[in-house]
Amino acid sequence: MKNLNKVAEITLIFWLMKIIATTLGETLGDFLSMTLNLGYAVGIGITATFFLTVLLIQLYSKRYIPVFYWLVIIATTTLGTEISDFMDRSLNFGYTLGSIILFACLLTTLFLWHKKFKSLSVFPIFEREKEILYWIAILFSNSLGTAFGDYLSDVVGMSYLNGALVTASIILIVVLLHYFTKINQIVLFWIAFIFTRPFGATFGDFLTKPITKGGLDLGTLNASIVSIILISILIFVSHKRLNTKTA
């Protein structure tokens, strides 16, 4: 069955890559919409085109190929940033309502997934319909994470660093629950997956925002380049590890 698998196995390197990918999604999305001043609607158009392109490549691949898989993850985080910002700022939904809507969309997707397959297991996945639901759930969870990260900073009033520390603490609690309790592992996975997004979002803001607003003022382009280099190294490592397993 693993030979038919299309998605990444949930390991420590998976979570590290997910955090870097979400940070990249935040900084790259902001680079398109704000630094280049393209606006959120144009940003959605660009990132949606990229998402659909790499998603089709992933869906028609016969097996798990790390570079294709992680390109889709990066695409969902970038598109998720644009969707969240468009809802919150262009449509004036605000961070609270935007978060509620995205959370409802995620729950609906997971409900349909469970109703169809009687499980929300995320590994292995090889059925086309399940993989589509998997990517829809990931897109909504990443959009939700962006909205929640902005909610912490703009509504609650936390600094970007404090917001990152709060979400990191939640992730740490989930890790402890994973190792020391018998709570359903799939439930814990989705909680951790959702909260790695606001962690990446708030950490991305911490890297890019002005010092006067509690950031490091690296700029969206520089922060994106650093994230691209880091995740490229980890994708290379993933390919090496996969080749070793299948050799």
Structural write-up:
By secondary structure, this protein is an all-alpha fold. Helices cover 79% and strands 0% of the residues. The chain contains eight helices and no strands. Helix 1 (12-35) packs across helix 3 (66-90), helix 1 (12-35) packs antiparallel against helix 8 and helix 6 (160-180) runs antiparallel to helix 7 (185-208).
Largest sheet: none
H-E order: HHHHHHHH
Strand content: under 5%
> Rg to the nearest angstrom?
17 Å
Oligomerization state? single chain
Cα distance, first to last residue?
17 Å
Overall pLDDT confidence: 84
DSSP E strands, number = 0
What keywords describe this structure?
0% strand, mainly alpha, globular
In short:
The protein has 247 residues and is mostly helical.
Fold topology:
Elements: H1 12-35, H2 40-60, H3 66-90, H4 94-117, H5 128-155, H6 160-180, H7 185-208, H8 220-246
Helix pairs in contact: 1-2, 1-3, 1-7, 1-8, 2-3, 3-4, 3-5, 4-5, 5-7, 6-7
